[in-house]
Amino acid sequence: MPGMENVTRLLIERNPWDGKDVGIPYPTGFHPRTVAEVSEWQQFVLNRNRSTLFGFVGAARSGFKDDFRALLLGECGRAGKGRCRSVDCGGGRCGNRSAETLNLFLDSVFCLQPRGDSFTRRSMFDCMLAGAVPVLFWRRSAYVQYGWYLPGGDEGREGEWSVFIDRRDVRSGAASVKKVLEKIGEERARRMREKVVDMIPKLLYSATEGGLGEGMQDAFDVAVEGVLRRFREQQLRLHREEDGRV
């Protein structure tokens, strides 16, 4: 409809081919009120002793042929003690297991993030708020979704905060999740976790109407600033077009 042509839509999952859609983070369970609370949490997750290389929270889907989540659960089980831990959400069991899920992310260096019911997944933001590095298998799960929040896209900076393993390579056996993550090494993994922790303020929604303050932006601040920036850019284009006609 003509009246909707210039409406900017803020969505937890955007259509990559629609320039008016803007992806914003899924709300999580962490809603701090002050900069001090955020900084304290950042220090906590950054200095956390992580005993597991990678973790996975999810459920196999028996109704899906060659279910990818079931494949990841199997790989996690074969990885061995200290390499992978999982929380099986089969039968809706994760509805009341938020503490167990959070502890898994806090204890893991990396967290596996296959697509959810759609391409994106709230679990990715739970994982990052816990200071773990997300491992993605579909580029559309994040890299073309959250341009205002996550470095990537044309900048080619996805590797600063995430790991991408093509799902087709995992399915065919050409890539092993465990081997890919082991090759990263402790030093690089630490740098990636530092980048994730640095991005935490922009991925959460504070519990105060006035925002966190002290120059720290939360997800809402980033969204509003982005929309206003779009308005200014559009006005500038219109002025230039009018000047050109004159």
Plain-language structure description:
The protein is an alpha/beta fold. The chain contains eight helices and seven strands, in the order E-E-H-E-H-E-H-E-H-E-E-H-H-H-H. It has helices at 35-46, 68-79, 98-107, 122-129, 167-172, 177-184, 186-203, 219-245; strands spanning 9-11, 21-23, 52-58, 84-88, 108-113, 133-136, 163-164. The mean pLDDT is 90.
Key traits:
246 residues; alpha/beta; two-stranded parallel sheet; 41% helix; globular
Order of helices and strands: EEHEHEHEHEEHHHH
- Structural class of the helix and strand makeup? alpha/beta
Number of strands: 7
Q: Count of helical segments?
A: 8
How does the major sheet shape up?
A: 5 strands, parallel
What is the distance, rounded to the nearest whole angstrom, between the alpha carbons of the first and last residues? 30 Å
Rg calculated over all Cα atoms: 20 Å
Poorly predicted runs: none
Binned strand content:
5-15%
Shape: globular
The percent of residues in helical segments reads: 40-55%
The largest sheet has its strands arranged as: 4-3-5-6-7
How much is the average pLDDT? 90
